[in-house]
Amino acid sequence: MSAPSRPRVLTVAGTDPTGGAGVQADLKSFAAHGAYGMAVVTALVAQNTHGVRSSVVPDVAFLRAQLDAVSDDVTVDAMKIGMLATADVARTVRAWLAEHRPPHVVLDPVMVATSGDRLLDADAVAAVRDLLPLADVVTPNLPELAVLADEPRAATWQEALAQAGRLARTTGVAVLVKGGHLGGDASPDALVDATSVVELPGARVATTSTHGTGCSLSAALAALRPRRPDWARAARDAKRWLGGAIAAGAALQVGSGHGPVDHLHHLPTLGLPSFTDDVAPALADACRDSLASPLVAALADGTLPFAPFAEQLHQDALYLTAYSRVLARAAQLAPTGEAQEFFARGAHSCLAVERGLHESYLARAAVRPSTPASAVTTAYVDHLAAVSAHGSYAEVVAAVLPCYWLYAEVGTRLLALADAVPGHPYRDWVATYGSAPFTDHAAHACRLADDAASHVDPATRARMTAAFVTSCRHEVAFFGQVAVAAGGPGGAPAGADVREADALAVG
Ligand SMILES: Nc1ncnc2c1ncn2[C@@H]1O[C@H](COP(=O)(O)OP(=O)(O)O)[C@@H](O)[C@H]1O
Ligand SMILES: Cc1ncc(COP(=O)(O)O)c(N)n1
């Protein structure tokens, strides 16, 4: 049989109805590391970010029934043990472990919560010590280390490392000693076994969001171990992740005491609407405003005189030359071959269309080829050039998107209107944007923008939105830049082929 797609990881721990510690935190930590999480409950704890109110420890026969229900059916790749509550619970877990020990076992010797409340009976310490040889790694904080080693609490980090070394030598279990209770600017941890010390440095985050840090760390360690070559590598990655989770905890605004950490801080876009769903209202506004411009309105009913149409196309040709360079930049930054090809084709297509406008159409128009780019065209091009020079791939894609998407939307609506006018003089030009392949290209560009947005942090996502909205405004201004004289029949001069030369891939 092939290997499972994800490590199957079990927590045996108590509960926290506010989701910051215990089983609830462990399952989040497992999911955050790509593991399939399972949970056996040792104790039901009525607690929140202020502390523990009461707890119920179900009969140990029921605990054993839960453990057996898992091991009778599921292969457990790794396991984390948290709150054990009583000596009976610890002994029951030990008996089960003796028969069903998974390949990787982390023991978090939970004794006292961050709030100061006891989570382990005083007479249960010996039973927890008896569990140590069945674990691979034990993760005590400084007070717990002292209790397990049966020594006074270490006052310095060096003392803690020495104490962890003694515990590792007497029990044969590796000790991930946690310096969270040390105070000072640092919050170091270290993985200590009988012969070696691997220090895991970490900066202390100034925060009260430390509820469940020990639970989350030990769960991350268990979740990572099946996919890491050794405990040191798993511990390093778990610690790095926890630092980010602690830093992001306050923003969750959960509770008014010691708040939880953000287990999903590294997946900031999870659950957000897609980028294109998010900016769809801005696109709809731009579409409405574009259709309301005198040029587009006259284009729709076929009354647009030829001169302003030619003037608009001339600005379009100037714009396309610059836009091509920005698409080439998107191709350069593209993270996938598919995206690179899409934007490289787009860059080429812009130039082909620009040339086509001159050959098939503008050559016959009254607009002098030397007519410079308007202030409106220049402003739009400058915006795109600035994003292209300073922005990430995601921002460049957001900036170029309206030229695809808005042209497809406006083109589709214009085509429906043009089709209602017999002999519409600009129908072919309108059809280029209002039908495939251009509308397919626009849908493709939207998908690439959504892909790009799903990998960025909130600040970059905000810059994507700003770049998109600014481009939309420039598009509206672009449609509005040419004055349309009232009256006068529309239509291209005889012989003018309004259809653009190439199969358009850009607006
Ligand atoms: N303020 C903090 N900033 C950064 N890391 C912290 C902070 N407080 C705790 N940690 C880290 O969280 C983990 C749990 O530490 P600790 O609080 O000592 O354990 P416990 O939650 O079991 O009491 C350790 O990796 C520790 O270094
Ligand atoms: C069920 C349960 N298990 C463990 C802890 C320890 O939490 P902390 O990491 O904040 O000390 C807790 N508060 N509740």
UniProtKB/TrEMBL annotation:
Keyword tags: ATP-binding, Kinase, Nucleotide-binding, Thiamine biosynthesis, Transferase
Keyword ATP-binding recorded: yes
Coiled coil: none
GO molecular function, one term: phosphomethylpyrimidine kinase activity
UniProt cross-references to Gene3D superfamilies, sorted A to Z: 3.40.1190.20, Heme oxygenase-like (1.20.910.10)
Reaction(s) this enzyme catalyzes, per UniProt: 4-amino-5-hydroxymethyl-2-methylpyrimidine + ATP = 4-amino-2-methyl-5-(phosphooxymethyl)pyrimidine + ADP + H(+); 4-amino-2-methyl-5-(phosphooxymethyl)pyrimidine + ATP = 4-amino-2-methyl-5-(diphosphooxymethyl)pyrimidine + ADP
A Pfam family reported for this protein in Swiss-Prot or TrEMBL: Phos_pyr_kin
InterPro entries, per database record: Haem_Oase-like_multi-hlx (IPR016084), HMP/HMP-P_kinase_dom (IPR004399), PM/HMP-P_kinase-1 (IPR013749), Ribokinase-like (IPR029056), Thiaminase-2/PQQC (IPR004305)
Residue span(s) of domain Thiaminase-2/PQQC: 294-479
Residues covered by the Pyridoxamine kinase/Phosphomethylpyrimidine kinase domain: 16-262
GO cellular component: cytosol
Pathway: Cofactor biosynthesis; thiamine diphosphate biosynthesis; 4-amino-2-methyl-5-diphosphomethylpyrimidine from 5-amino-1-(5-phospho-D-ribosyl)imidazole: step 3/3
GO biological process, one term: thiamine diphosphate biosynthetic process
Role according to the record: Catalyzes the phosphorylation of hydroxymethylpyrimidine phosphate (HMP-P) to HMP-PP, and of HMP to HMP-P.
NCBIfam families: HMP-P_kinase, PRK14713.1
Protein name: Phosphomethylpyrimidine kinase
Species the sequence originates in: Cellulomonas fimi (strain ATCC 484 / DSM 20113 / JCM 1341 / CCUG 24087 / LMG 16345 / NBRC 15513 / NCIMB 8980 / NCTC 7547 / NRS-133)
